[in-house]
Amino acid sequence: MIPLQKDNQEEGVCPICQESLKEAVSTNCGHLFCRVCLTQHVEKASASGVFCCPLCRKPCSEEVLGTGYICPNHQKRVCRFCEESRLLLCVECLVSPEHMSHHELTIENALSHCKERLNRRSRKLRKDIAELQRLKAQQEKKLQALQQWLGQLEHMPAEAARILDISRAVTQLRSLVIDLERTAKELDTNTLKNAGDLLNRSAPQKLEVIYPQLEKGVSELLLQPPQKL
């Protein structure tokens, strides 16, 4: 049997079959193998009840990392995150013409930066919700006052509609806050792109469609972006 090679990982070679990685997967210790090769190894090891990395022999979980950690184009470990394309890149991607002019972050920095933005956006929306609830309480008091004045009943439908608009806006903003906070908590390399999509969807300029019927002054206040997002 050909001995496993420890120096071929960066070249994209599977230590088991000694060929280019196909559908590369990683063990808990970070070594890469062809999916088929590692699956066969796991099946053989399952008889003894102990699964160890074929290369370093460290105990591993049978739940190998998903393909999100491996570049689908070059079958190598991803090491950077491109902010423009919102894609995970390997060393070969970094030198390709497509990405040479882009700004890339290490995966660790990308995760930290994205989590910070998600949490900051969540805090901003929570403040918006509080402002809307304050406005709703004012409108409800106004509606109650109108109900006592028979001569102003014609204004009541407009006031009730305004309260309904505010309630709908609060519901939609709360849903966004839940998504933002859950994404920040569960953020990893597999969800970086989705996190970027969520940040775009919750950007101040995108929220205008949530409460288009609110009074102009209130809409302008809520849609005003924070100093840094």
From TrEMBL:
It catalyses: S-ubiquitinyl-[E2 ubiquitin-conjugating enzyme]-L-cysteine + [acceptor protein]-L-lysine = [E2 ubiquitin-conjugating enzyme]-L-cysteine + N(6)-ubiquitinyl-[acceptor protein]-L-lysine. Pfam families: zf-C3HC4. Its EC number is 2.3.2.27. Residues 14-57 form the RING-type domain. Keywords: Coiled coil, Metal-binding, Transferase, Ubl conjugation pathway, Zinc, Zinc-finger. One of its GO terms (molecular function) is ubiquitin protein ligase activity. Residues 115-190 form a coiled coil. E3 ubiquitin-protein ligase that plays a role in the limitation of the innate immune response. Mediates inhibition of the RLR signaling pathway by ubiquitinating RIGI and IFIH1 receptors, leading to their proteasomal degradation. Also promotes the neddylation of IKBKG/NEMO, stabilizing NFKBIA, and thereby inhibiting of NF-kappa-B nuclear translocation and activation. Belongs to the TRIM/RBCC family. This is E3 ubiquitin ligase TRIM40.
